[in-house]
């Protein structure tokens, strides 16, 4: 514990390095934005990671965010759901000091050298150098509020407390008689408002007033609070028309509007999903399955039956990976075999897909399950094309075109699955090349992926776990397109 951390009174604080020689109200105010800027510049010089866990924004969002922080600006992150907006806001706490001194015994965290609250000033005058202080850790200096239409000015700013006024013997217009809301309680820290457009215009105006002018009216009483708080927002562009809008005076005072986005590359998406997904211990997820799961999100975002304004959250592949791994674990517990995720486990994760896609009218007519299955088919074809496009599958395709069908085994040990796949000429060799592993369970997963990829490329047809030659009309389309 440092000398500063041991200080328990204002007198002890003024004797410690960094505070020695200062006096209360000496005008040497270090605002939260200054604190963030100083720590940010130090990290930039040393090459430290600025926002751990935020992937895929190194060349887009993070440079804009750093610029806003260096400029000491409040800012808003604007983007669709599942684009790590909340994670970024919370990560900014890493740019705060580990601890800061505040006056002990007051509701609103207040700087003992420059108190802005009436109660803090009164305690400073009463105790002088014996003013008790406490040390506020950075984790407690972040306050977040999810905006909803029913949030009131009292929730964010505060309200007059008649009982408190009677106990203190003050008038109702005295700041000391207030019961503080979330924003004053975030003094000396960061206050984040998620989904800003959902706030009622009256509340947004109150928020603007207290930040720009330092005053607000509570029950007709003008209250002045010159808070030291960094305000950050997030919002969804859909909200501007669907549920509300940001009032012009507040929007005009927000320093920077930073647009977030979904991963631009499947590999980046896979890194995010692997980082966030919580899967059962011991379950193997082959690389081609991980890529398939991520490609499903990319295909869904491009599908015309999925609402583009709502977007497809990055939570879709995260949830899908978790459910697919759980289904593989369930199958292994029953069969007593190695748990390896297969394509059939991805289909078992349909509930993780359908709940995260807002469908257009055409999609509603088709049905969420059917749309999800078609998205999986397209994703399998795309991944197969990238990984296996150069493989020779003519012998396998001819076997199916001769009228043969193959029911892929969904249960039993992996060894039995490998034996069953030998029925299809060339399938085991293709699976071994894709799997890159001697594990029977991984090879079975690879064999099913090869068949699903050919189905996605419209070289086979599929009915549940039964694979067969493509439908006649599909075969004709293929002949006209590729021959």
TrEMBL record:
One Pfam annotation, family name? Answer: Sigma54_activat
| Highest taxon in the source lineage | Bacteria
Ranges of residues in domain Sigma-54 factor interaction: 175-237
> Which Gene3D superfamilies is this protein grouped with?
P-loop containing nucleotide triphosphate hydrolases
Q: Which InterPro entries match?
A: P-loop_NTPase, Sigma_54_int
Q: Provide the protein name.
A: Magnesium chelatase
Can you name the source organism?
Answer: Deinococcus aerophilus
